[in-house]
Amino acid sequence: MVASKKPDTEYAEILTQAFVLQKTGMPDAALKVCNRAIDNGQDNEEIILLAAKIYVEQGELNAARTLLVNSMPKFSEYLEIGVALGDICNKLGLTVEAKQHLRSVLDISPDHPLATIILSQIQVKEGDFNSVCTTLDNGISASRPDPWIYYLAATMLDNFGRPDLAALYLLRAKERYPNDIHHSFFLSAVGDGVVPERAPIDHLRELFDKSADNYDSHLNSIGNASPRHIVEIIEHLNLEGRGDTSILDAGCGTGMNGDLLRPHASWLEGVDVSPKMLKQAEDRGCYDQLHCRDMVEFCCHTPQKYDLIVLTDVLSYFGALGEILDNLRRCLTDDGHIAFSVELLDSGTADKAGFKLAVNGRYSHSLEYVMDMLNLAGYAQPEFERKDILRQEFGVPVYCMVFIARKRTAK
Ligand SMILES: C[S@@+](CC[C@H](N)C(=O)[O-])C[C@H]1O[C@@H](n2cnc3c(N)ncnc32)[C@H](O)[C@@H]1O
Hints:
The protein is α/β, with parallel strands linked by helices. It contains 19 helices and nine strands.
């Protein structure tokens, strides 16, 4: 097997056409272009992979698997097809077949990061921790330029009940990459150091800058709840067709919420710490203003007042909620609303802090803690609360709670 060749001009044209259609929200048309090329033998491995990705995004895992299996003889030298097949078979519960594909890839390229993570994920689910460590130790090569595979491995091990092994891989990352800015934050989640009250800004900026290019498609593949939450917020507050609401999208990211909020907003502003996420939000063209800043600092200084501030999947980067809720309240009009989601911390496992940092760098909050903080910060009892699945992490659902609360006039 070899790494991918650059597509020649003919393939490049087909690929670009399909890619643009997919990116602009026309996956069926993109798929048609890919399938026509495949039927005419004008396909290359990247066209196959794009078609498989679209099938996966549409939930048609069996179609994706069939396509990849059929293309294996023609593209047997292309590693990424084996990795994609391993991933899809794993999602379909065909673990024996998944392991076969992934092992074939790792036989050729023992430190392939994605193949390493997916294979170790299957082994972790099977409770085979010895094999997990062997797979990870083989897969984490001496030449790897960054420590993210360690962090992913640690998150996975922690998720499956082995914080001890998670700590081991984080400590190895710290040893090999002493100057990396992330390990001390992650390590605090497994008891090494004090848990900070919120995620460090330089950690957030680097994390989201790094993931900006693939953020939307990654989110769609793990189940993106934010658009659903925005629709609920619009419905609950009867924003439909009014167009008279000034809105701040705090932690707007790539601006996925912006498209949904725009038709109902008289003014739509976004703030985020990641310049690369913001660039994508800007390209959507639906915000009146965007700011590259820490939202706490932004809210302290802006003279603007908003009828609604939304924070979908953002408060997971704050542990203590007092300061941020206080600052957001300052920027609300007299009967303004805040609408947000938090990752749910089971009250049984919540300690007295009411929030918990996980090895993946995200905080979860107990329901009681959120209620107390809303009350203390000067918000009325939430008028909307709903439990939902936020996303799937390593195939396991992560639960969240969506709240909408009005500002109390008197604090
Ligand atoms: C998981 S993304 C969610 C993006 C968007 N709200 C959505 O639902 O699609 C979290 C975003 O919040 C931003 N963020 C986190 N903490 C922040 C802070 N203190 N100030 C500004 N942006 C922040 C991150 O940079 C990232 O873009």
